[in-house]
Amino acid sequence: MPGLVYVELPERGVLEVAGEDRVAFLQGLVSNDVTKAGADRVIFAALLTAQGRYLFDFFVIALGEALYLEAEAARLPDLQRRLSLYKLRSKVTLADASRRFAVAAAFGRDAPAALGLSGEGAAKGFAGGIAFVDPRLAALGLRCVLPREAGFAALEAAGFARGDEALYDTHRLALGVPDGSRDLLAEKALLLESGFDEMNGIDWQKGCYMGQELTARTKYRALVKKRLLPVRVDGALPPAGTPVMLGNEEAGELRSGRDGRALALLRLDAVEAAAKGTPLIAGGARVVPEMPAWVRLPEA
Fold first, then answer.
1. Which of 67, 134, 168, 226 supports an S-S bond with 140, CB 3.0-4.6 Å?
2. What is the spatial distance between Cα 139 and Cα 178, in angstroms, rounded to a whole number?
3. Which conformational region is residue 283 in: left (phi greater than 0), alpha (psi within -120 to 50 degrees), or beta?
4. Taking residues 87-113, what's their average pLDDT?
5. CATH number of 225-295
6. pTM for the full model?
C-alpha cells in the first residue's frame, strides 16, 4: 500500500440533477435508495434497461440543492439523454456539470482517516465540494468531487501526493472492483454477476425501479452462474474481450487489465475447476482466479 496518494480521474464526469422532484425522479429509476444520499452519505447505484441489463453506474451525491451523478465522462451525454426520456412532467433539470467539477481518487495508509471519515459511503463537505469513502468498498479509499478551478490543493495540504492513473488502476484491479463499461458490457451485464450486491449498489427494500424484476428474480431464484472476478495472468496480458478457455470450452472473457492482473467474467463451474488445478487459458496466458474477501459466491 502506498503512502497517501491522490489521482485525478479525467475520464469521470458529473451530471447535475436539480429541481424539486430530483429525489423522486431518480428513486423510480435507479437500483439504490436515493433518499439515503445526503450531506454525510454518498451512495452507489446503477441505471438498467427495462429488461434488467446494465446501462450505467454512478455515485449519487447530494450537494447543495441538487444531486450529482459522478459517472463515466465519455458516456455522460448518453446518460443525460436516457434520463431525459423519463422526465415527463417531473420538475427536474439535467445538466453536464463536468466543467465545474473535477474528480479524484485518494487512497493509501487509511486515507479516509486523513480527512476524518470512516465507513463505506461516509461523506463530508471538503474544499467547496465533497469527499467520501468509496461506498463500494472502503479499501478503495476516498473519492473527491471538487470545484475544478480550485484544483486539488486541499488534498495536497491534507498530505496526499499526486499520482498517475495507472496507480489507481492497479489499486482497484488488485481489489477486484470493476470500472464501469470497461468491465461491464452495456445492455448485457447483470448486476449480480458484477458484484453490485456486495458493493452496496442495490437496495432490496426500496421498491420498484427500472429493471428491478429481473434483478430480484436473479437473486431469489439463485440464477447467478457467472461472476466478474479478479485474476492473475501468468504470461503476456491478452486484450480485453479475449475468451477464457477451460480445455476446449469457453469459460468466460477477460475485461480490463494491467501489469499481470485483470478482471474476467467467468463461469462459476470453471472457477471451481481452476481451484482444483485445471488451467484456464486466455490468449496463451494462464488465468488464475483470485477470490477477494468481499466477494460472496452463491451457495452450491
1. 134
2. 14
3. left
4. 96
5. 2.40.30.110
6. 0.96
